[in-house]
Amino acid sequence: MHNCTFFYTFAMVASTSPALEPIPLLPPPDAGTHFPGVPVVDLSHPGAGESIVAACQDFGFFKLTGHGIPLHLMQRLESATLEFFHSPQAEKEKANTADPFGYGNKRIGPNGDVGWLEYLLFPVAGDDPFSRAPMATSSFRSALAEYLRRVKELAREVLELMAEGLNCKERKIFSNLVMGEQSEGIIRLNHYPEFPQPEKQLDRSLTGFGEHTDPQVISVLRSNDSAGLQIALKDGSWVSVPPDHQSFFIIVGDSLQVLTNGRLRSVRHRVMANGVKCRVSMIYFLGVAPGEKIAPLGEVMEEGEQSKYREFTWNQYKKAACRTRLGDDRLGQFEK
Fold this sequence. Notes:
The chain is an alpha+beta fold. The chain has eight helices and 15 strands. The longest helix has 28 residues, at 138-165.
């Protein structure tokens, strides 16, 4: 893989324990307020495809219910993840066996971005994504493998319903791009810990993960019941997403925005860390193969519609992303 993998997947290089001082502060959130307009799609209802498309057009984001994945399976991976993050720092750093994958904290990419979090990052390839991390227990491996198997099938269903909602003739036009043997999938396990002195109240939250868009086609996110996730609306305002540990959240990535010629938009999002209660999130990023060409698909374009983007490969996107900061507009350089 390209040596900037850690940046375009928004991983972090392992460093010392998180420190408060260099991490940006965010404006204090309005107490107890969450955005009530987050779109919800029930996967078990007829017309889910149309609802998915509408949500991705308006928000680039939606909550997914009726997915059929049992809560105990999600909680099993959450518990295993927390067990790892609560282990001694020296033990955690043993997982950093192969840069860019493994364990890291605080630093996000090579260009100065930081956040109040630690993480585990692994490629989803083969049957054992923990093959590069001998520290992983058998129960951790088992929990992750089962979780990934179920979420991958969930992502396939979402993408195929999306194609139906866009009236594509080929139902697998999106899913085939991210389900191939060479397709690049990545799993992130994020931990936003409590502050070292929780009794010391801050009048602002710390940046947990700074604002950005995801590079891939879609991301499937699940978290515990701790708040912190925010998305940007079309007018640029930020709203807080109510946590729901029983549901998944689907995030449109830059690749899907290009594939649909901007019809579905990637959403800027960030995480605020309040330091009072830890947040744990599990994000499965589904990307295309390194040499795959990314350009607007004819099936989603209307007759006579002009492409808004010039064609590029996934590798070309990644190389360009290595030169940017987390919050930069990476698609701008590919617009016509």
